[in-house]
Amino acid sequence: MEVMFISVYLSQDVGSKRMLWDRLHQMISSFQGECVLMGDFNVVRVESERLGSQFHPTTSNYFNQFIDQTDLVDIPMGGPRFTWSHSGGSKFSKLDRFLVTDGVISAFPLLSGMVMEKKILDHHRILFLEHKDNYGLYPFCFFPFLVSRFASLGHMESILPVLVIFKKKLQFLKINIKAWNSSNQNQLGLKRIEL
């Protein structure tokens, strides 16, 4: 996949922002691959992303229209709620973010952003990552009471063929897993799965 990374730093001027959003929209629309935009957009999307300073709905509407027209996805951010704070500590805003095209989300569905601790500057650093938790094998559970429940309701005739097919699929899966274990155990140093 071809990915174009665009680092953004927008000025405070609304006219300059609109011109840059139009130019970015043209760039992204004409590019044949996927895009990742990141940086300081100097605008918030909703009023709750600003605290202690004036919210400008017109500028936010233009920004949201740019995101919608370009089919971008705003990556969720963990960590502190705001990415910028005034040196006096009285104003806070979420100005920094990651925007990506749908293809990036399809290829990496576990993408997220993380707002890091603030060091010297007025902006927090932001980190772009794919977070994948691995808790091991998922347990398989079969609840016999469901079968008795269907039987008591008189639906056993309708579910019996489905259960037979399901049983056959489990048997086939067990055979394949055992075959895979025996052929790959020594090559990959894997532990054998007992069924």
Structure description:
The protein has helices at 14-30, 57-69, 102-107, 144-152, 156-188; strands spanning 3-9, 34-40, 50-51, 72-74, 77-78, 84-85, 92-93, 96-101, 111-115, 126-130. It has 195 residues and is of the alpha+beta class. The protein folds into 2 domains: 3-130, Endonuclease/exonuclease/phosphatase (Deoxyribonuclease I, Chain A, 4-Layer Sandwich); 144-188. The strands form 3 sheets. Strands 1-2-8-4 form a 4-stranded mixed β-sheet. The two termini are 39 Å apart. The model has no long low-confidence stretch (mean pLDDT 82). InterPro entries: Endo/exonu/phosph_ase_sf. This is Endonuclease/exonuclease/phosphatase domain-containing protein.
Count of the domains:
2
Head-to-tail CA distance between termini: 39 Å
Whole-number average pLDDT? 82
The CATH topology of the largest domain corresponds to Deoxyribonuclease I, Chain A
- Order of helices and strands, N to C? EHEEHEEEEEHEEHH
Instruction: Count every helix, treating DSSP H or I runs of 4 or more residues as helices.
Output: 5
> For the report, how would you describe the main beta sheet?
4 strands, mixed
In which order are the strands of the major sheet placed?
1-2-8-4
Given helix and strand content, the structural type is alpha+beta
Radius of gyration: 26 Å
Unreliable spans: none
How many distinct beta strands?
A: 10
Proportion in β-strands: 15-25%
Q: What percentage of residues falls in helices of 4 or more residues? A: 40-55%
- CATH superfamily assignment of the largest domain? Endonuclease/exonuclease/phosphatase
Tell the overall outline: elongated
Q: Name the CATH architecture of the largest domain.
A: 4-Layer Sandwich
CATH class descriptor name of the largest domain = Alpha Beta
Organism: Lactuca sativa (Garden lettuce)
Protein name: Endonuclease/exonuclease/phosphatase domain-containing protein
InterPro entries: Endo/exonu/phosph_ase_sf
